[in-house]
Structures are given as C-alpha cells and as structure tokens.
Amino acid sequence: MAEDSLRLGGPSSGLFLILNGEDSKENSSKSHRVSSCDELGYQSVERTLEYVFGLPNRSIGSLSGPVDGNLVHGILKNEFLKLHANSSALDGDRDGISISGNGCRPYTIGLDEISIRGDIGIVKPPLLVESLAMFSSARANASVWKGKWMYEVILETAGIQQLGWATVSCPFTDHKGVGDADDSYAFDGRRVRKWNKDAESYGQSWVVGDAIGCCIDLDCNEISFYRNGVSLGLAFHGIRKMGPGCGYYPAVSLSQGERCELNFGSRPFKFPIEGYQPLQAPPPLNLFATQLLQCLSRLLGLHSVEQAKHSSVEKLRLKRFVSPDEIFYPVSQGICEELLSVLGADVWSIEYVAWGPFLSFMVEVFGLQAPHDYSGLDRVLDVFLEFNRSHLLFEHIINALACGCRTATLVLKECPWSGSYPYLALACHILRRQELMVLWWKSPDFEYHFERFLSRKDPNKNDLESMMPSVWWPGSCEDVSYESSMLLTTTALSEAVSKIEEKHRDLCRLVIQFIPPVTPPQLPGSVFRTFLQNLLLKNRGADRNLPPPGVSSNSVLVSLYTVILHFLSEGFGMGEICGWLKHSEKGRDVGFLHRGGHRSFPVGLFLRNDPHRNDNTRLGGSFSHLSKSHPVDDQEAEDIRWEEGCMDDEETRVTHLSTRKPCCCSSYDEDFTRISKNPIRYTAKGSRAHCSPMPERSSHVTTECSAGSLSDDMADKPSSSYQSESDFTYCPVQHSSFVPREGIMSSATLREEELLDVLLLLYHIGLAPNFKQASYYMNHQLQSIANLEETDKKIREGPCFEQLKHLKEARNVHREEVIDSVRQCAWYRISLSSRWKQRGMYATCMWTVQLLLVLSKVDLLFTYVPEYYLEALVDCFHVLRKCDPPFVPSSIFIKQGLASFITFVVTHFNDPRISSADLRDLLLQSISVLVQYKEYLAAFESNEAAKRRMPKALLSAFDNRSWIPVTNILLRLCKGSGFGSSKHGESSSSSIIFQRLLGQACISDEGLFSAFLNRLFNTLSWTMTEFSVSVREMQEKYQVLEFQQKKCSVIYDLSCNLARVLEFCTHEIPQAFLSGADTNLRRLTELIVFILNHITSAEDSEFFDLSLRRHGQSLEKVNRGMVLAPLVGIILNLTNASEQMECREHNDVVSIFASMGCLDSFNCRFQYLLDYNWAGILRGDAYLGKIAELENFLNLILLHSQSQENKISGGETDVNDNMCCICYACEADARFAPCSHRSCYGCITRHLLNCHRCFFCNATVLDVVRISEKAD
C-alpha cells in the first residue's frame, strides 16, 4: 500500500490526506488503515497508534494509562508475533541451488578453497579478494541447475578480470581460468570481451567502482551481464543444461594485483535485477526489520505534520487529546528496543539489515537532495544511540555509506545532488556526533572507509555519452542547439562535482577537528596527520610505470589533493583551530598560500627519517645515501624564514603585499563577466574545445582569464650538462634566516606547511597523470578535428562514387573521435580545472619556487629536497600555461607572480647538486618551450639571472644528451641574424639582447666556445649522415613508410637548426675560424661540402622531397632551401669578415675551399646554390645581392684552383717527403709524445678534440711537440 512507503521530509501521502480532514468513513472503505480523526475532528491516541503500527481500525481499545514502553512492547508482541513467525518461514524451498558447507554458519556462500588455483587472498571480509599470483581462479561453494540466479561483483581495480560461471569440470591453471573451456563463460571489461574458449567483443569497458551483475537463466539457458544495473546484452545462449550436483558455479579469474568484492547475497545488491534471485537468501529477519522501520517512519511523519505551518493542521492540534511529541519518545524507543533485541539474537542478520532497510530508512529520512531533514535524522540518532547495542548497526552503516561513495555514478537528471553526494552528506551529519566519530575512529577499517568516502567513480565512454548527450565545439557543423545544450549539461555537472568536493571538505574538517580519547591527550589534526602519513606510505611507488599492488585509487588521491588545496588556498573555514590562521594579516578568510610578508618552512620535514618520506628520492640522491655522505647536525630543530619576493629583482617583484598583485589575487572583472556569459565562445582557438563555467571562490581573491591560445605542447626532453661545484657557491639569502621551531609553533601541531608538502606529493602521484591524459585528449581532439575538416573538404570536391563512399565512412569515424575527445576534454575541465583550483595551483607554484630558491642557497638543505617538489612545480606551471581557456593573459602570466620561476630554471638546469639528469632535462626543456613565445621571452630578457647565467650555461650544456633542446633555444634566440629569413617575416622569438650576450660569452671564454664548436661540428655531421642513410634506404626499397618518413623529417629539421646555429657563430665570432690555426675553418669547409654532396646528389629529387613532407607541415619544412640557406649565410659571413681583416693575418677562406676535392664536382654543387629558387622561400629581393656575392666567391675559388693546377702542370711543385700523411696538404710539423709519430699540427689538434690516443699506434698522448719549435 502507498501508505507503507517511506517518505522524505514529511508524512506519507495517505497520512497527509488523513490529517487534512478526509472523511473517515470513505477512507475506511478503501484501506485497512483509517483516520485517527473522527467526524468532530478529534484525534485519539488509539487511532494514532493504529496508524503508526499499520493496524486495522479499532484494533486497539481504549487506553487507561499513558503511552509507555510496556504498551508499545505489548502491541508489538501481540500484533507482530505472527508477522515475525511468517517471516521466519519465508526461507522455504529454493529449488535449483546446492550449497556445500564451509565451516561457517549454514547456507553461507563463499569461495571453495579447494577450487583455488594461484593465490587469492581475502583483503577485507566478507569477500574482498585480491590475486597475489600472476593469474588466479576460484569457484564459489554453490552451484545452480534450475531457475534464474545472480551474484554481484564490485570492482576495486579495473584491470584484467574474468567474471562468470563455470562447471566443476572447467580446469583452472596458471594461464587458463573462467571462460577458457567448455561449459565456462566469462566477461572481461578491461578487454571488453566475452569468453567461452574463444573471445568475442561484448559489453562496455569497466571502471573502478562498477557493480557487475552476473546473471544466469537456466530456464532459457542464457547468461547475461549487467553494468551498474544496465544490461550489456545477452552474452551466451543455448548453454548446456545441468542436473543436481553438477550445475554452474559462480567463478572468477584475476590477474596479479586485481581486487574485487564478491556479493552472493550476504548484502543487498547495489543493482538487483528483476526476476533473478541472489544465491544466498536474505536473512528471515529482514522483512520484520523493514516493517519496524516503516512504523518508525510513519511516527516521524506525524512529528513533521505537527511542525508544519498549515492552517488545517494547526486547527487539529488544538483538539488533540495528545500531541505526537508526547508519544514519539516512548513509541520510538519501544520500536528501536524491539529491533535491536531481535537483531542481537541473530548477529548474522545485522549486516544485511544495516546495508538494506536501515540504510534506506536513514537516506529517506535525511533526504537525497537539499534541503535535508536534519531534525528528523537527529531524532532518529537520539533514540538509537540510547542503546549501546546500536553501535554495531552504525558500524555497518558507516561501511555501507563509504561503499556507496565508491560505487555511485553521476546522473545528469539528478544533478547537482548526484553521485556520492547523498552518502557523503548523510555521513558528515552522522559523524558530527562525537560518539559515532569515536566509534568510526576505533574501527580497524577507519582509514579504509575514509579512502572510500574520498573516492569518486570516473566515467567511461558510455557514461560520458549519457552525461553529455549533446556535443558541440567551435567550428562544428552540429545542430546550433547543441551549443546551449552542452553548456547546460556541463554547468549541471560542474555544480554536482562542486557539491561532492564540498562534502569531502566537510568530512576532512570533522576528522581534523576530532580529538581522539587517548592518553596522553592529542591536538586537533593528529588523526588527519596519521591518515595522511599512512596513505603516503601505502602509495610508495605509485608514480612508477607499473605501480605496486595495493596502492590507493587515483580518485582518492585527486580528492584529497583538492581538499588540501582548498584549505590552503581558500582557508579552512573553521575558526582558530590549531592556531593556523593567527599569522594572517588580512583576516581569517585569506588562505595560507595567499598570505604575504614573512614566510617560514620547517626544514625538518626533509631531514627526518620518516617511513612515509625516506623512500622519496631527493635532489641529491637517496635519503640513505645523503644521510651517510652529508649527515645533518641540528638543522632539524630550525625553521627557515624569508620575506616573500626576496629572491626577485626589485623591478619585477610582485607579492601579495605589493601594489601590483599576483595573478592569483588580481581582478579582471570586465573580461570575466564577458567570458562567463558565454564561455564556449571564448574557448581558446587552439583547442576548439568546449569550456564550462566553474565555481568561483570568495571575493577577496578573484582572477580572470582572457581569450587566447596556449595549447602548445612540450617536446621530447633531453638533458642538461654537468657543471662544477664552484659555479653554485652562493651567498647567503637576503632577508632569510633560521629560527628555532618552538618559537613558532609546537612540533605536535599539524602545520599548513606539512599540508603543502603532502599537496605536492599528491599532485605528483595523483594529478600529474590526469593532466597528462587530458593533454593527450586535447591533442587528439585537434588532430581529429583536422582530419574531419580535411575529409569534408575532399567530399566537397566531388569525387567518384567509390571514393565518396570511403570518404563518408572515414568522416563518420573522425566525427566519432572528435565527439569522444570533446567529451573527455570537457570532463577533465569540469573535474580538474575549475577557476579556484587554477588560482590555488598558481599560488602553489609561487610558494614552491620561492621556497626552492631560498633552500638552494644552503647546499645541504637543497640536496635533501624531495624530487617531487621540482617535478610538481614544473608540471603545474606548464599545466596552467597551457590551460584552455587561459587562466590569465600570457602577457602577465609570468610577470605578475612567477618571475622567480625563470630565475630557478636558468639557475639550476645544469646544477650538479641535482643528481637526476632527467630533472635537469625538465628544467632545460621548460626554457626551450618558453622562449618560443614573445611574452615569455621578454620575461627572460628582463631577468638578471637569465642574462647573467644562461648564455654560458647553454654552451656548456650542449652535450650528447641535451643538444636538441639547447639547439632549439639557441635557434630561437638567434633567429633573424642569418641569410634567408622567413618569407612571412622574422620570428617574434628572436632576441637582440641574448644574441649580444651569447657573442660576448663565446669571445670571453675561448675554451668553452671551442668545446661547444667541436660538439656542434660532430652533431651536425652525424645528423646529416643519418638523414642521408635513411633517404637511401627508402630509395632502395622505393617505398616511404610513415615511421621512416617521420624520422627523416625530424632529422632534417634538426640538421637545419644546427646549421642555423653554426651560421650565427660565423656571424658573431668569425675570428674563431679566420684567426690562428685553420682547424675550425677546415672542419667548417668540409662540413659544408659534405652537406652539399648529400643534399644535391639525390638520384630522385621528387622522392627526396617526398621523404620530408608530412601532413600539416608548412612549405618551409619540405624544401631543401631550409638547409641550403644557412650554408650560404656561413660562406658570406666568412668572406665579409675576411675583407674586414685584410690588414691583419688571417686564414685564407678561398684557398681552403679550393682545396676541397674535385673542382668539377665542387663547381656543380656551388652552381646548385646559385640556381636554387630562392624567390620561392625568401621575402623581397634583398637576397639578390647576396647571391651575387656568392657567385663572386665561386669565381675566386675557380681562379685559385686553376692557378694551382697550372703550377702543378708546369712542374713548379716538388714532392715533399715531410707532407702530412693524413691530409696531404700541410707539412708534418708536429709529433705525439711519447710515441713520436708525426703529422701536421692541424690534423693532430683536430684529432685530440675527440680522442687522446695516437691515430697510428693508439698510445695515450701526453703531449704534442711542434717540430719547428724544437729545431729553433
């Protein structure tokens, strides 16, 4: 009956009609439950009790005494005795199932230990299992042969698991499990396959927290699977019929580390399937408990009506013999006592009742949506907590609520009160009771439940499709209405995520404020600190490519990071607890990260041998190594203190106390208003992705983003060079000092600095992988959109019928890829990139980089800094830089707060105290990316540390590991100084300032420049050789494979860049080639001839160009002029410099070039340079004069060569026995010591640049002796 249903926030519908004066006679003909109000409007106690207990009219006679516990007990005993007896008999025949004993209570279904192959362990009772072997399988101890049955599996991990049914004849081995034999059927959502000896595509991909229903219908001989209550379709039909004793067993196979929770019916199913029975029958007491809770629900409904402000209800209240308040306590107490008494007699039923009817009762009393019925739930808690026997019931309730958070899915129609919100809201209110918080804290599963409360189920492709049914992106040809529809859906989902995050914070506040009842007394925050420490200890190694088994779900790490970030950025919102906010000069509403002025950090966090920290690698190496090689004295008892912004230049300093505020605390209200009204239109053009509005923080810290494109990506990262220790001997930090920790705060108090330390580690192991995945989907979206537009263009060109058919098929594929990518990108924006999170991340970057700069002044402390500080800083910086739409305009992104980041990367990308080459690579790659953009390059030019350190550091960092990023940096700094600038104008990335500084660095340190030039020659020679070999391989096979084409294009680009750098060197430092020994000039000439030979001698010119051309590349990237132009520039630079040095002794460029090989071949190569179509790639006609100069140079070479030939033919030259046997061009005027082998000084000098052994006998060279000098 409708009246028996539990109602939320008020009485049941039947009761509402009754109390509003419906005719009792009319109602009595329709229902056994009648009005407790007679024709005169009087309401008696008897009629009220009949309604509460669901009894027929006039079944309770006149009462002579008050309503008390004895009366309630009597009613329950007399009227519910039959019901109780009937419910006990409901577990009658369940034909078609056979359960074998397992040593536990009768009819309990679990795993058959004899059937286990591999190693399956019980992580948590009753059946949370984990595979501890490479592949493990097991069957349950129950089989079915008739009827419709099901069991449910909650996924704790989402890897390879085969769930299904198997007969006892199915063999389990180390490699075969469920579904790998006859009469064995399984579903695997990781591989999206169904298995019965062979695999077929089936179902959907699953995610952590999914509830997989495994159903078997032996009446129709079918097996099907359900994901979160939604059918995945019929999996198998026509399965073989079985008989008693040889039926189908529930069976699972798990890969190593995979975990799942099996429910055969010991708890109510999350998603019961109509018509299917659980293998384990519900306890007999379940129906009786449900009826008692319905009575309590109706009693609460009476109280709700009593409090309502309805006029007709007020009239009835004046005429009652007794108010609901007077009967609520004795009746509710009697119901609770009876319920707990019955459950106490059957402890096996408590868990089922708690997870089933009692949880449903609590949720419906409290309400699924706001506003919640806090008073109604409080009345229930007051009554139950009077009985100590209720503690076990509440332990199961807390467990059930935590599990609900794990499995809850966001549903668009339920937003914003969707997902885990109802469970979190109920748990937060329950745990405000000190008694229940203590009960939860004492539970051995406290931390396990806490993690489940913080977990959030991520959607798969199908979930996103239901959450965002309409998809739109800028430039799409979809229905115009899709734009507004997607805006509405993403807004609703954003609000839902915000509500869940708010409840996560509420729960963490409760734990922080909780003071455990232990001796000695603890301070607030101690429980939360212990939880964090154990969580970090549990997740050691979570950042590896293959994380160890047992680490936390990524959603837990993300949720905890979000909570801590909000606390540090927006404030805790809970008063003076722990004294955290007492140092704020702006009031309690200013978060830790946004407070200006004095700052401090407990360096003991790095120096203590804590189990959860000592496994983290430090900048100087492992903690165990540092503790032995660089032991710490009394530093642990000190805090390092500094003034915000003390590491920045005075001109560029921006702090929270300065007039100009950092980006995280600035205001761009006008732009923000415009963008927030139509966020889709202001999505960055680079990504073309949809952007949803995000919840904003309080008004004291507001920031706005502007439209722009920062959708670039970082290239592959190589390494930095090793520098001497002397380069990093720093002066003490100004405005910084060490102070005893006790002078600030007790060491027992949880400090905000500790939370910052945890925040950075959580970002590293939890957030960074998500942002990496988001970047992948953004790039994939761009590529898919480009493919879609290209296909549409080809369709519009009107191809033939067959081509049109294939193009339309390809278009459908590209369109689906775009839609999926847009949904994925939108979800990552919703879940990770709300405005307040971006502001908090920006402030975190500011705080961290200043801390690292301060610590870098103290060698010992800097080496103890964990690596994840630096990794999180760099990754977070670039995430903010590339966010779409941008967090703030790129012109102020660095200037207003992050100038220190420039200082840090240019100072430490070759810091020898950083032991990891990968970390130095990371800093160098950051420079390589940033100098591409005019706004960021300006920040480098205005940074004193960059101007002072970067030129020489870049030259020294050009080594075998890091030459690619260094080349890119040098190229971008030096663009515009060479021959053949872009047809479309000079690059905005060129820097006159750094060109001058690089030239000065090369001149002032000849040794550094000489080593750099030698590596530059070797690298360019290697890249051109690799390019030539790759092209020749493709020509021989006469096919262009995609991989080979990409390789050729990349190597060619690198060769062009290296040639441009070499051109810059000849322009800025020509004396390095023209003065002194001619080694550099000869090497340069040989390299030019070498490149010309490879570029101009390709047999198939069309094939050569095809090997360079890739999809989406501009014309500049696919022509030979890209490498020929810097060669022309090099030659002209040398000839012009030679003319200016006529008055001084210098090397003869013409004679060196003339000595290079066959004259006819040389003339042919140079003629190719003269005849090349420069007009196709160059701007204007200024190049014509340069080409004329090149032609004059070629004529000089030809004249010189002709003159030498005439001398030889005229017999003017004599054969000299002292000629160098290596080059046959110079006299052997030097010898190796001690082996005394002779050669020319030029060849010996060149050889020793790369090898210190004699090239005749391979002996170690100790010295080189000039023969002429010895003779003198």
Summarize the structure.
The protein has 1272 residues and is an alpha+beta fold. It is built from 43 helices and 22 strands. It is elongated, with a radius of gyration of 39 Å.
Please tell me about this protein's structure.
It catalyses: S-ubiquitinyl-[E2 ubiquitin-conjugating enzyme]-L-cysteine + [acceptor protein]-L-lysine = [E2 ubiquitin-conjugating enzyme]-L-cysteine + N(6)-ubiquitinyl-[acceptor protein]-L-lysine. Residues 700-709 have a biased composition (Polar residues). Pfam families: RKP_N, SPRY, TPR_RNF123, Ufd2P_core. Residues 76-269 form the B30.2/SPRY domain. With 1272 residues, the protein is an alpha+beta fold. Among the domains are: 97-278, SPRY domain (Jelly Rolls); 286-296 and 322-533 and 550-570; 1005-1206; 1216-1271, Zinc/RING finger domain, C3HC4 (zinc finger) (Herpes Virus-1). Helices cover 49% and strands 8% of the residues. It is built from 43 helices and 22 strands. The strands form five sheets. Strands 2, 3, 6, 11, 12, 13, 15 and 16 form an eight-stranded mixed sheet that branches. Strands 4-14-7-8-9-10 form a six-stranded antiparallel sheet, with no helix packed on it. A three-stranded antiparallel sheet has the order 17-18-19. The termini are far apart.
Alpha-carbon distance between the termini? Answer: 122 Å
Shape: elongated
Structural class: alpha+beta
The helix content is 40-55%
| Share in β-strands | 5-15%
How confident is the prediction overall: mean pLDDT? 81
Rg over CA atoms: 39 Å
Low-confidence residue ranges? 1-42, 88-92, 309-320, 580-587, 668-734, 741-747, 983-988, 1112-1116
Strands, total number: 22
Main beta-sheet strand count, sense and barrel state: 8 strands, mixed
Oligomer: single chain
Number of helical regions: 43
Organism: Rosa chinensis
Keywords: Metal-binding, Transferase, Ubl conjugation pathway, Zinc, Zinc-finger
EC number: 2.3.2.27
Domain B30.2/SPRY: 76-269
